[in-house]
Amino acid sequence: MYKFCWRMTMSYNARKLYIIVVLSLLIFMNWCCFMTDPNWAVALAALMTSALFFNRIADRLLHRLQERKHLWATLILALICYCIPYMNSIFHVLYTLSMASVFYPSEHVLRIKDETDSIIRPLELLRKILRNYF
Predict the structure, then answer these.
(1) What is the pLDDT of residue 73?
(2) Cβ neighbours for 18, distance < 8 A, ≥ 6 positions apart
(3) What value, to the nearest 5°, has the Cα angle with vertex 116 and ends 110 and 120?
(4) In angstroms, what is the C-alpha Rg of the chain?
(5) Alpha helix locations (H) across the chain?
(6) In which region does residue 96 sit, left (phi positive, over 0), alpha (psi from -120 to 50) or beta (all else)?
């Protein structure tokens, strides 16, 4: 987990790869939902997923979902969508994005990375990042 946190914080390409993996998982889930029961909710879930193709939108969304009130609101909305039979595909999108935002580095951690002392003491920086990551 240390390597994962370190790479996600220090490397923009690792964060981009994480978004691509989450996006491919969402595309696969949308495809499965479309093959089993195509309806308007699957089309809405596909539109929500296609918005994530833009890295800036996905990055902002994952940062925004890290705030507690947005995360809880998204999870409650996901549970409501889960209770309605034909809205399962929207549940999958909302729940996957909520869980992906938990492992995405917060803006506070990214600000710690950019401190001037971080280059001099990398072990202390690693401890700070791990303490503030979750």
Answers:
(1) 87
(2) 8, 100, 103, 104
(3) 105
(4) 17
(5) 2-10, 12-36, 40-50, 55-64, 68-83, 88-102, 107-113, 122-132
(6) alpha
CA-to-CA distance for 111 and 37, rounded, in angstroms?
44
Task: Tell me the per-residue pLDDT of 69-123, one tens digit each, with 9 for 90 and over.
Answer: 888 888 888 888 888 888 888 888 889 998 888 888 888 888 877 776 666 777 7
CA atoms within 13 A on the CB side of 16: 6
Backbone angles phi, psi at 6, to 5 degrees: -65, -45
Among candidate residues 7, 2, 10, the one with its CA nearest the CA of residue 115: 10
Question: Residue 133: which H helix or E strand, with range?
Answer: none
Closest CA to 70 of 54, 94, 46: 94
* Residue with token string 């029961």: 37
**Angle value at C-alpha 121, between 105 and 66, nearest 5 degrees:** 10
Q: What is the pLDDT of residue 72?
A: 85
Query: What is the band of 1 on the pLDDT scale with cuts at 50, 70, 90?
Result: confident
